[in-house]
Amino acid sequence: MVRFLLTRPIAVTMTFLALIIFSVIVFRTLPISLLPPIDVPQIVVKVNYANASPDAIEQNVLRPIREGLITLNGLEGMESKAGSEVGTVRLTFEYGTKMELAYIDVNEKIDRLTNSLPAGLTRPQVIRINTNDIPVVRMQVIPKSGVDHAEVTLLTENILKKRLEQLEGVSLVDINGKKSRVITVNTDKAALNALKMTEENVINAIQSGNSDLPGISVEDGQFRYYLRLATRVDHPDDIKRLPVRSEDGSVIDLGRVASVQYEMEKAMGFHLYEEKEALVVTVHKQAAAKMNELLPRIYDAVELFRDDYPQVDFDLTQDQSTLLNAGISNLQTSLVFGGLFAFGVLFIFMGNYRTPIIIGISLPTSLIISFLVFYFFDISINVISLSGLALGLGMLIDNAIIVLDNITRKRKEGLPLFEACVEGVNEVMSALISSVLTTLAVFIPLIFLSGISGALFYDQAVSVAAILFVSLMVAFILLPLLYWLFFRSRALEEIKEDSRLFVWVLAGYKKVYKRIFKRRKLSLGILILMIPVLLLVSQLLAVEGLPPIEKLDAIVEIDWNEPIGAQQNRDRIVEILSSMEGTYLKSESDVGVRQFLLYDGENSLQQATLYFLFEDQNEKKSRMEGLRQLLTGNYPEAAVNIVDAPNAFDQLFSSDMPFYEVRWKDLKSKKPIPGAQMDDYLKAFPVTQWEDGPGLQKESSVIFKLNLEKLALYGVNPAHFQDKLQKLFGNFNITDIKRFGEITPILLKEDQTNFEQLLTSNSVRGKDGLEYGLHNFIEFTYEDQFKFITADKTGVYQSVSLAGSNLTGYNQDIRNWGNNNQLSIDFSGQYFRDRETIQQLIGILMVAVLLLYFILAAQFENFVQPLIVIFTLPLGIGGAFLVLLFTGTSLNVMSAIGLVVMLGIMVNDAILKIDTVNRLRAKHITTTSLSRSDILERALYEAGEIRLKPILMTSITTILALLPVVFSAGLGADLQRPLVFSVIGGLTIGTFTALYFVPLAYWFVTPKTSK
């Protein structure tokens, strides 16, 4: 095939040019995003139930929802959590479930359940989780002094939101911090009593005055007119003029017995930018959109907003494109330095400039054509796929160096240029194909990992396979063609093959080789003993998900654990921000309940999240430590969690699941065990180190108990009494003014004071017509109640999270404790999920090793020689561990990718070394009369000399190309540095292994009987 293609250089050249042109066109259409659009198999159902307790939400809302959704197809797990006024049900599906259909199915079942849910409850919100739901940037909208916040809310919802949604690539715009105006009616109780009226008279007057006659029309000849009541109200002044009729028939204007005015709706939550109340707009991208093109459009739009709306300030925070730009920058750096160092190393070792130029052409050609594969496999350009391309670059350089070196060697043996190109490629073709297949055999099985990890590895596996197969095509077709074109006018004697440096290195290699082979058994024994020693280094390494990236921003999560309202929560946050003024560059805070449509976290009035951006890492560390001391000193009940601001990776992999959780259920009552009884049970709990789960956390509550006997004695209707309480303590909605899609509620307002005074100052009428104070019929107590009620598929549970070591050792004791208290015990948590993942990973790696063995056995036509390649891998891994330990680097996702990169290059070198030995042995058997032992020794010696140059050039080129990352700073360098250390450590020992361990092992596993 190579001979045929080389006879048609113009056709081959045009074909590659066409592929490059098509790839450039395709590249412009590929979506660019931070992460692959992973369909996370989770759906969250959110419930907002004003003035409802956790128990009421659990019994009346969440339990019916759980029972209605239990039959969903593919449902793997269900967790619900009821808090004050809010509740959530989190549904987890099996991977592979069609989430579009699951989302439709959940919505249909929620619609069917609507009639069985409490009247007045807004429809539960169904949220589908996707990686594209992570906002790419947050736009702060800050009203200037004197500007009405409600007007800015209308501006943001009706104009800014729509203008952002019109930008190409934007899928959704979400808003938090909105405020709206309501009309409040505050009755004058003294005036009502003097006129013998009640609040009911006022409410009836407003409801009558705001009524409409929908669908009623009259005919006038050939015309038809629709009727509309002229008494409909639109403004507080209209309400004041409404007539109110008393029981004795007198009629007065409503304004004489009540004050009516516009007010801001009572806020359940706030958004703060610095210390000012503001709105935040999160922008989400479409799956096919290019993030690097979308962000400039958003920045341009914000500049226009500043000019068009001077009454509002704007700012952009938490730009998620930083990580993507770092990944692209690192790929560009690898390409530039890879090309420069490849040129330099080849020039130093080979002494001519044409060969480096050939590699300089082949590298970008392979990379560009790889994007054609991205298009056909529907892969976006993201951090994961880019890391796959970076992973394949080392192998790409390796293949190019091996092919060019082999062609040069064939010319050196006396073959004509054309024949040297053909034979040079054909000789290493099978070995290079095997090396690529073995690399893929190690890597591709990882896509079968369950969960998000497997989904992420899919993009990486496709990108690796793409660049490796394209590099083979380039190495087998384009490289020999370029070599033929560049050297056809050069005589063999004019080409400088080996530089003085390489001649010196070759002499040193031979000396070490001879010394090692004089003591073969001792040398091999030392190398084999190094394997367990180096692998044990892994026990000294810290293990984490992502490498520690130097971040200048931080998140402070606060749960006050006190029954405070949103306003008090806001005041505390403002006080904290004031005390830190001038110490940070930017800050924003989400206080209380969040209004985001896509927010799937816990909404609570007592919680707040603060974001800070600092100038440097030291400032951030000192300020955050000072803030922690301030909070714990002033608010001892508060739970404070300070973490680095999460990027998209953190948000994707983060989990609220406890590490090791013990759950129990009371199967008789199917309710939470009361607090006092639970406290007694926990005194005998067999583990000392544990923390309360959500179902055991408590908060102070006021418990109202109606005295039904008194109500009956004085002839007070209990339903009327409860309605009175609802109007007194709740936001009683009299009616709504609707005009052109805008809804303005009319609310009955009560004086804001403590509840005891409200009960004393308000009364209810008995059967004798007399008024009695509400406090006569109510008994109240202060009690600590459970803050949340948690449940799963089988019902309500309570739990504790265990800490310490040997957690599974307490399982039997915990089960006995549960049996003694007639509780059903269950264990769950991240611990069990991690064990399942590790078991899967071990199984997948065993399959990968078997595939590796099968491919090599087929390549070498031998069952023993593949073991040599397999035993080189632990040495490389151990070398990587050693460098990670010396540099203080953890074992994380990026260092693991570096291990795969290094193993691919090591396998390549070992395969080619063994393949060369096999060919030389076969050649010498037919051309010499030496014994098999002498032939083997000669073949090993010659193979070492032949393969020395490509092995050294590949390793040195790869190491030098990656070395600048070690001395760089910034987010991209922090992310890639563990990968670089893994590759450098592995290749340093891996090069020594390929040069000396492979021939030693080959000597001992090969029969040496005489010819």
From TrEMBL:
Pfam families: ACR_tran (PF00873)
Keyword vocabulary terms for this entry: Membrane, Transmembrane, Transmembrane helix
TM region positions: 12-30, 331-350, 357-377, 383-404, 436-458, 464-486, 522-542, 841-860, 867-887, 893-912, 951-973, 979-1005
Gene3D superfamilies per the UniProt record, alphabetical: Multidrug efflux transporter AcrB pore domain, Multidrug efflux transporter AcrB pore domain like, Multidrug efflux transporter AcrB TolC docking domain, DN and DC subdomains, Multidrug efflux transporter AcrB transmembrane domain
Cellular compartments per GO CC: plasma membrane
A GO term, aspect molecular function: xenobiotic transmembrane transporter activity
Protein name, UniProt field: Cation transporter
Organism: Anditalea andensis
Lineage: Bacteria, Pseudomonadati, Bacteroidota, Cytophagia, Cytophagales
